[in-house]
Write a structure and sequence with these properties.
Layout lengths: L1 H22 L3 E13 L6 E13 L6 E9 L3 E9 L4 E8 L5 E9 L6 E5 H6 L7 E5 L4 H12 L3
Antiparallel strand pairs: 1-2, 1-8, 2-3, 3-4, 5-6, 6-7, 7-8
């Protein structure tokens, strides 16, 4: 009876260790989204673009899950990102170093739990399209301004 019990406990422990090993492995992710750049101040402004997200999702047992990778917006704006989420939408700041080597925020990105929707604001988009600071947004997947705004509301609601 003692040997049988040890065998069952050993098999259970090996099963738990294997499950943890599989669960904690990074999950590669790469996807391109058709997107819309829009302005909240200028109701007539909307431009089609693409967003590419590439990196790894890291699941954690305790604390938020993490996505680490690269984001390409409007075909040539590349950023390294780290997003935290899991039970809530993934979100994070996009940062850069200025001339004095100080870190400053140049945007924010939020991605739905299933990575099927993205909403972001980028200073570079505001400059490129001559929009007011904090007024140019990108939503994906969207084909028009109305869909883009709906996506931003869905992400804000955690859907």
């Amino acid at each position: 009876m003692n040997k049988t019990r040890r065998l069952i406990i050993s098999i259970a422990l090996l099963g738990i260790i294997y499950w943890l090993f599989v669960w904690l492995q990074p999950q590669p992710f790469e996807r391109e989204y058709s997107s819309i750049i829009y302005s909240t101040a200028d109701q007539s402004f909307a431009r089609s673009t693409d967003i590419k997200l590439k990196g790894n999702k890291y699941r954690k047992l305790l604390g938020p899950d993490i996505f680490v990778g690269e984001l390409t917006a409007d075909h040539d704006l590349n950023y390294k990102i780290k997003l935290e989420g899991g039970k809530t939408p993934y979100s994070g700041l996009i940062t850069a170093h200025d001339a004095t080597k100080a870190t400053r925020s140049i945007g924010i990105v939020t991605v739905s739990f299933n990575f099927d929707k993205i909403w972001m604001e980028l200073d570079d988009i505001n400059r490129r399209y001559k929009l007011q600071e904090g007024d140019g947004y990108i939503s994906s997947p969207a084909k028009n301004r109305e869909e883009a705004i709906l996506i931003s509301h869905l992400i804000a609601a955690g859907k």
